Amino acid sequence: MPAAQHDAASPLSRSRVDGARLRLLRRDVRAFGKGFGAEEPAKREKVKRDKAASSGSIPRVDVTVADGGNSSVVMKFNVPSFLVSEYYERSISTFQQAINHFKKTEAPRQLVLDKVPRESIIRKMLDLLCVQLVKTAIKQKDIQAIGEPRLLNPLEEVYSTFAPNEGLTLDIKMDVFPTVKFSKSWRDIKVRVAKPPVPPDAAWNETVKQLKSIHAVPFDYEDGNLLRRAQWGDMVEVELQECYARNETGEVLNETIEMGQDYQKVVSVILEKGWNPMGLCEGLIGIKVGDTRPVNVELPALKPREGFVEDEQQQQEEGKGEGDVKINHDFKDRYEWIEEMGLRATIPVQMILRCVKIRGRKQPEVDDAFMRERTNTTLAEFRSMIDGQVDEELEKRAVKARRGAIQNELSNIADFEIPETMIDRQLVEMFNRRREEEKRREEEKRKEIALETGEEEEEGEEDEVSEDDDPDALMNKFAKFKEEMRPVVVRQVASSLILQTIRESEKIPLDEETIRRQAREAKERAPELDEKILRERLTAMQLHDRVLDFIASTCKVEYYVDERPTRLRVQSGDYSMESVIDTVPGVVPGPGRLRGDIEKQIVKG
Known about the structure:
Blueprint: H1 11-31, H2 41-55, E1 63-67, E2 72-79, H3 81-99, H4 109-115, H5 118-141, E3 145-151, H6 155-161, E4 168-176, E5 181-182, E6 190-195, H7 202-214, E7 217-219, E8 235-246, E9 252-256, E10 266-270, H8 280-284, E11 292-300, E12 302-304, H9 308-317, H10 331-334, E13 335-337, E14 339-340, E15 343-344, E16 346-362, H11 368-375, H12 379-413, E17 414-415, H13 420-453, H14 471-506, H15 512-525, H16 531-552, E18 556-561, E19 566-571, E20 578-583
Parallel strand pairs: 6-18
Antiparallel strand pairs: 1-2, 2-4, 3-4, 5-17, 7-16, 8-9, 8-10, 8-16, 11-16, 12-13, 14-15, 19-20
Helix pairs in contact: 3-4, 3-5, 12-16, 13-14, 14-16, 15-16
Region (Disordered): 306-326, 434-472
């Protein structure tokens, strides 16, 4: 082949020449100790910065960390100029996209600089930059941060001195998870626990008294009871003639109260405390047959149980008349007692009662024959059950008192600060839960009123403006709630942190299966409950009990008898009876109280 054909334009000759030059270049680079493709350090650093900027993260920061007090730290950042420039451009780009939100293209950069205030661009830049700085510092310095970062630099100072091509010094404060320390070992604490002064036979004597009263047999007095005045223990039949309302001061109002469909005109009243509405027995003591007298009474405030009203309406819709409605439920099953602030609500009334008849009541002997007939047990077996109930109740009280004493002692020896973030977060959660509960109660009340009046809310009807619709009113409401509940929340958070610290150091396990089961059962009873919040509460309760019981097994606990009077409730197992015993050392307890249906026989099962 002629040599003229191998000129510079030939592809083959060009590739050979380039290959030879490349080999020579590589040899020269290796000779200088650099390696092919190596870049200058400044250029390599720029490549790293570009990659970091494109991903939105900062690989490393120049930061010093100092104690900020109250379980917080202050991070001092020296931000280089290239980061300031990069995030300044990011801020501008954010406004470019916001201006042309509904268009595919960004707004011109100069338009942003002309139309958007300089302070807004800088503020947006600080928001973007601080998030990445804190995120990198937390990882770099292993900071146990909680809550949101707070910029300490005055914004006016930043605005006045800012330049896109110059570095920045930023101070950012952040709450951190507190470290709990103890002034002495919690294993060395000593606690004194009070026990109630219960006489040995108190519960049994009260139970026998209740049994005799329940199974007393009525009888007619020989004198025909015409001249007899009612005494404690008698059974008095009275006729309700009128019922008037009373106000809060006790003044009788000229307002007649309808007693409802379950009202009986003549009723039997057993004159014993704890059996009847407050004031009824006291008002009937001394009455004679034929007498009529006004009696001031506190009636229980009842409401229909959910579901029963719907059952009645369903039966009526199926073709039965109003008078034919039959639902096989007891009165106590059809209604429930309304509670206000944890107490049973009552309605003050004045009843006009006429005495129809007075009868005595003969109490039986409580012996083995009595117990076999009614409980299928012996007297000794029944007493053993009552004594077991007393022991169980006393143990529950001792455990509760012991846990409280240990918790107080732990608070005395613990040394740490609670960050405001944890307190505010707990307050917000409690406030929101209270609001949801208030809304639920208001909704139930509206439904009750609608059922009573037979009116239904019209669709599209606008509700009245509530506090939740007014931001200022809502903030004022939260401020009052915070002022009221902050001491409670501080104690709760402090206790939780102390117990969590001990649990982690001692590796005390929690029973997750029990928590799941309890949460499932609670959810079945009340489907409206939030499952996450429910499990958090159950976990906190189990943590509280297990850690305090663990500490009780290691520290010194001293029990003593509390000389102050107390009240003890004993419920007789499967029997619908509860004795309330007022106990004083060396003193026989006073009258007790029976809870439940007074006509229910004490029959096992």
